[in-house]
Amino acid sequence: MPRNSGVIDLESLEAFFRPNSVAIIGASSDATKIGGRPINNMKIAGYRGGLYPVNPNYPEIQGIKAYPTLGAIKQPVDMAVIVVPAPLVVKSVQDCIDHGVKAAIILSSGFAEIDEKGAREQTLIGEMAAAAGLRVMGPNCMGTMNARTGMIATFSSGLIDRGPQSGGISIASQSGAFGAHCFILARERGYGLNLWATMGNQVDVEFADCLAFMARDPATDVVLGYMEGIRDPRKLVEALAVAKAYKKPVVLMKVGKSDVGSAAAQSHTASLTGSDAVFDALLRQYDVHRAATIDELFDVAYACTAKKFPTEKQLGIITVSGGVGVIMADAAADAGLDLPPLPEATQRRLKKMVPFAGTRNPLDVTAQLLNDTSLMQPMFEALLTEGGYPAALCFVASLGLNPMMMERLQPAMEGIARKYSDRLLVLSILARPEVRQSLEALGYLCYEDPSRAVHAIAALTRFGQAFADTRVAKPPPRLPRGAPALHAGQSFNEVDAKRLLAAAGIPVVEEVIATTSAAAARAAAKLGFPVVMKIVSADIQHKSEIGGVLLNVASRKEAEAGFTTLMRRAKKATPKATLDGVLIAPMIKGGIETIIGVQRDPVFGPVVMFGLGGIFVEVFKDVTFRIAPFGLDVAHAMIREVKGYALLKGARGHKPADVNALARALAQTSVFAAKHADALESIDLNPFIVRAKGEGALAVDALVITRP
Amino acid sequence: MPRNSGVIDLESLEAFFRPNSVAIIGASSDATKIGGRPINNMKIAGYRGGLYPVNPNYPEIQGIKAYPTLGAIKQPVDMAVIVVPAPLVVKSVQDCIDHGVKAAIILSSGFAEIDEKGAREQTLIGEMAAAAGLRVMGPNCMGTMNARTGMIATFSSGLIDRGPQSGGISIASQSGAFGAHCFILARERGYGLNLWATMGNQVDVEFADCLAFMARDPATDVVLGYMEGIRDPRKLVEALAVAKAYKKPVVLMKVGKSDVGSAAAQSHTASLTGSDAVFDALLRQYDVHRAATIDELFDVAYACTAKKFPTEKQLGIITVSGGVGVIMADAAADAGLDLPPLPEATQRRLKKMVPFAGTRNPLDVTAQLLNDTSLMQPMFEALLTEGGYPAALCFVASLGLNPMMMERLQPAMEGIARKYSDRLLVLSILARPEVRQSLEALGYLCYEDPSRAVHAIAALTRFGQAFADTRVAKPPPRLPRGAPALHAGQSFNEVDAKRLLAAAGIPVVEEVIATTSAAAARAAAKLGFPVVMKIVSADIQHKSEIGGVLLNVASRKEAEAGFTTLMRRAKKATPKATLDGVLIAPMIKGGIETIIGVQRDPVFGPVVMFGLGGIFVEVFKDVTFRIAPFGLDVAHAMIREVKGYALLKGARGHKPADVNALARALAQTSVFAAKHADALESIDLNPFIVRAKGEGALAVDALVITRP
Fold first, then answer.
1. What's the pLDDT score for residue A646?
2. How far apart (Å, rounded) are the C-alpha atoms in residues A557 and A572?
3. What is the band of A343 on the pLDDT scale with cuts at 50, 70, 90?
4. pLDDT at residue number B258
């Protein structure tokens, strides 16, 4: 298990979440003011550690002894919460350093989010803290919480009347406002919290730090994350690796998917947003559930608190409404869950109990269940014992609004939960809060909307399958010995680009440049007819438009004549062009056009794109991405991810394509790109032809652009 | 406006929803029993019409005078609710007929949903009623309601304690259990209802009848529908036309999308499910919002009660959280809404009010709005006046949980709602129910989840744009005079199929059958080289496999030789085949491969499919459907609907394709298919080549299969 092996220093974050003592620098005696709220919150929530208000003007604040300075406390202070106006923050940070504080949260705003001066001040704070080993959260953040210890170091106003319920959800939010909203949403939904942190301007501690800390924390069942931009991609990757190593589910919302969205995200934060498609691929690689809506974020996080992650995607459904049964079945198909039918014998037996029941799966007990609650136990048991589904979903409409009915059902619900404690048991139910809580206490997850319940189950199953996959990632392949280096500012014509890539182990079509018609004929004969002939000149971009490409050249004679034709056409169309000669290559027939591309992402560096060629890319944007470098396993995953994979597998009468050759080329390209990350701008292998199984794959055209 | 012009008799349905008097046949004095509940419900809800319990054993039921028989009532009875056991239902129906009852609801179950005997009984009831002009709802249904009049003719148990709140949502549900669930969901969400109906086994009145009735009802703002199968497609189409004519929004859930789903739907109802893709196309054609989840069904129906349907897709957003601003912007992009920025001058002015605000759109006022509620009015006004957006969405987090804050905001919210009563005003807010109600009373729609709010706004905008489109549908084109008839049991080889279609006005490639090599050469020369040559034989299905196709035949000499080659190959491969000769056709180069297909749908009859050819169909299933026949407008809509339309428009360096020729062919095919609906099984024009603009389109291969 990774501990402090990487760039994240997890141990030093401890003081933000489990401090033995907290000082509030700039404490206010008004419990509704920003400097008063953290104290009031910790009082309400019953924090038992040392709590030291610092304010030179009062001997006591909110009934607690106050201190004129940090130095006057004379006790070790693990964490300081700084709430003073922005111009005084640097002084407070220095005080923290001087008095050996481990962690400082700067709630004060007025830094990089405001202007250049604020940004400089913030940088100074970062440098001071780094030099002294003080960890800083913020500035312009809403602080941290630990719901179990009552350590509520935030000025979020949502807490004034009621503290958080303690539970297994830890929340990391880059945005304070969003973090506060999540806190209140969790409370309103009745979800229990563990740790909570908001990072604000992230001068030191950033989202990835908190994610990693929470992922390693044993009391955290699930990390609910919200991020806007990525500061240090290495930290993010490390944090995701920690979560994966600890098999801790992460449910993440990252905003900025659409164009307008991205513009808003950038005006809102200082950090770069990065290419969303790349980020998305990264999350998939690390089995993170990316939520598109707040509802989904909470639905899935809540689901994880059941701590049951099915490794098989079979779902058994019971319903009191045939129609809702179908809705759930449709949702299951959408979500990739299977609904295998109950065994025939079971179906016959159940049919005897309720003659007009639907008994396949969904098991439609009909509204009869509401008239005869004694049906619940045998029906549910049949599903779980004879159906053997790892997960079961039961739609009981508004049964939870009827306390009398629920009381009658209670023994059955208890019995089932006890007997099948290894299964994921989910109810779709309209219920009063106290009914829901008692069902949750038995181990049931409760959702109002049946489709949302299905999608939550599917998310748990994806986690379960990912956690069960213990295969170690394949290492990226090596570059061949003597592969030439790439330097910024180099430029390549098509032929040079292909030679460079070939030397790096990427298969390219064999080709020859001829500078006389006799040489052209010889080369063509050697390559084997038919061949393609193209004019080669760095000055001619669009060869086809000037007639600079000849296809299907079938004989020596044609090749000789072709050379003359191409040279004449090029001279006529572009008299000043320097002509390097004529390229001769075998004419590749058949195979499937794909594209392999590399782009330098501002956040993640070289990123490899794969997709099927032509219209697939242009019309359907059927492409996928990975951060370079990667191994064969990831390359195969990319190939399987595109919809056009059906063609590679052999749809439409094609023979299965040489997917292994393709995967090797992808991995090799990723390694080459990563090796030359600093010099490389982009690579474009298009078309990259994948031939039938065993026949390999070839880049027919290649473009390599270096950074200027 | 269509009234009773079609197959739906709207006037006779009146008695189900606004009866002046109701008799309960099989009334029970136990208010919790199925025969007692309707009476109890109507008492609670304050129904003021005549209420006549019928039961020979009691002089009084639930405090109301009871009658031994229907005949004993001696007053006109508009509607009878039949709750007697199944074997007694026929007798009760006869009583209704004998005493001039207009409408009978049969709540009793035990008919087609149970067994063959029940089905026969049900058929008998239907025949009796039809002969006598009695309208019947059910059997095996949950009845009807009118929330305004307190006419609650149902045994749904959800009503026992509290009646429905009256409002603008009318609910039509084929399934009783689902209808009851909807009723309770609406009540729990605080949504007001108008009419409610469940059709059960639909022996007479079916889903489409109720949909049409509600759509024409002025007190109905929106019809929320739930259906499982389609009995009479003509009725459904007519009901949809009524809703469209009255510009009444319809939000519909039809289950049975997935394979498993369809199986469940069929076991649950007797009616056919039909092809879901066809049904989907039909709903799009009639501007119905099809909901995939119950949440969506209710979100959109509720939105319609604001009765504001923007005709432009611009949205202005205010937020107290930059992050949620981005989430809403992402959702808007997903939902097809635009977020044009505020004018520069406005942005500068707002920036002065809140220096760190994001002022484009979303307008991110930041949590500052929560500290300074006086910002709400000027910010909101700037958005609506200077931004001029037809719809505005304001995210205020959990503000609605804080009564003090809401009180302070009240004047601003009132002022804005009054001044901008023409705009769609939506809040995303966590609020106590009473806060939400007071905001709704001012005219705001309130959603908890911001993404769901955006999607509801998008749905209203789609309705608005559809309602604003007053273009009359184009009539289907005519078939050419003398187009030959099609008969069941006919069979066609490729050549005959093309001739048939050509005579129906569908463009096909010109071709000639030659029976000698000399004739082949003459025909080829006449058509112009190069040509394609194919063996013609009803006995040879796969021509290519036996080498029965020659491409690029370039001269008379090649054509002569080609004839001989093809005849020899065919004889060798299939010695017993009858060879009709060799088909000669010009070789069509370029253009874009599309597919036009016709399939006979069990519910809707001939249905036309359109899509781009090859991999588009096979890998991406990028096709669309319409029920035949249709005009050029619908044909153009189909063409625009497929993703591959980008190619037809001229992507990837193609010239724009002759979309008009394609549309003509689609419409013409639909007319031909509709004309021969009884004889036709399927048509397959594949490939149907669409050439450059002005150059037309042609079926290269054609297959016509008739019903046996």
1. 87
2. 23
3. very high
4. 52
Q: Where are the alpha helices (DSSP H) in A271-394?
A: 276-285, 294-304, 322-335, 344-353, 368-371, 376-381
Tokens of B108: 């009793």
Q: Contact at 8 Å (CB) between A82 and A35?
A: no
| CATH top class, domain B11-304 | alpha beta
Kindly identify which residue of chain B lies nearest to residue A265, measuring between CA atoms.
B326
- Name the band, by pLDDT with cuts 50, 70 and 90, for residue A272: very low
Is the CATH number of domain B592-706 3.30.2280.10?
A: no
Query: Are residues A615 and B176, on separate chains, in Cβ contact within 8 Å?
Result: no
Closest chain A CA to residue B618: A652
A292 with B451: Cβ contact below 8 A: yes
* Contact criterion met (CB < 8 Å) for A178 and B324: yes
Q: What residue spans in chain B does CATH classification 3.30.470.20 cover?
A: 592-706
pLDDT score for B538: 73
**For B111, nearest residue in chain A (alpha carbons):** A356
Please give the C-alpha separations between residue A706 and each of A146, A485, A490, A491, A539, in angstroms, as whole numbers. Answer: 49, 12, 6, 7, 18
User: What span, in angstroms and rounded, lies between the C-alpha atoms of A632 and A636?
Assistant: 6
**pTM for the structure as a whole:** 0.90
- Contact check, Cβ <8 Å, B184/A398: yes
What pLDDT is recorded for position B540? 78
B133 with B186: CB under 8 angstroms? no
- Best mean pLDDT range from A3-7, A603-607, B21-25, B375-379: B21-25
CB contact under 8 A, A293 and B451: yes
Contact (CB<8Å) B330/A256: yes
Give dist(CA B522, CA B582) in Å, integer: 13
Within chain B, all domains assigned CATH 3.40.50.261 are found at: 11-304, 315-468
* The CATH number fitting domain A315-468, selected from 3.20.20.10, 3.30.565.10, 3.40.50.261, 2.60.40.10: 3.40.50.261
Question: Which of chain A's residues have a Cβ under 8 Å away from the Cβ of B323?
Answer: 173-175, 177-178, 226, 228, 255, 265, 268
**Minimal C-alpha gap between B449 and chain A (Å):** 7
CB contact under 8 A, B330 and A269: no
Cβ–Cβ of A620/B618 closer than 8 Å? no
Give the mean model confidence (pLDDT) for residues A226-233: 87
- Domain covering A519-583: architecture: 2-Layer Sandwich (3.30)
Contact B258 A332 (CB under 8 A): yes
Cα–Cα distances (Å) from A54 to A29, A102, A335, A413, in that order, read 11, 17, 54, 53
User: Percentage of chain A surpassing pLDDT 90?
Assistant: 72
Q: What DSSP letter does each residue of B488-535 carry, written as one string? A: TT-B--HHHHHHHHHHTT--B---EEESSHHHHHHHHHHH-SSEEEEE
Residues of chain A in contact with residue B159, where contact means CB-CB under 8 angstroms, are none
- Closest approach of chain B CAs to the CA of A55, in angstroms? 23
Can you tell me the ipTM of this complex?
0.89
**Encoding tokens for residue B664?**
């003509």
Q: What is the pLDDT of residues B627-648, one digit of tens each?
A: 999 999 999 999 999 988 988 9
Higher-confidence residue of B181 and A229: namely: B181
Residue in A619, A620, A621, A643 to test binding to B, most B beta-carbons within 10 Å: A619
Residue A275's pLDDT is 75
Using CB atoms, pick whichever of B293, B397, B643 lies closest to residue A619: B643
Tell me the mean pLDDT in the region B494-510: 92
- Whether residue B53 contacts residue B66, with contact meaning beta carbons closer than 8 Å, is answered with yes
Fold exhibited by the domain B510-586: Dna Ligase; domain 1 (3.30.1490)
For residue A647, give the chain B residue with the closest CA: B619
Residue span(s) of chain B under CATH 3.30.1490.20 come to 510-586
Chain B nearest C-alpha distance from A373 (Å): 15
The rounded mean pLDDT for chain B is 91
Please check the confidence at residue A2 and state whether its pLDDT lies above 60.
Answer: no
| B238 pLDDT tier (thresholds 50, 70, 90) | very high
A-B Cβ pairs (cutoff 8 Å, strict) = 246
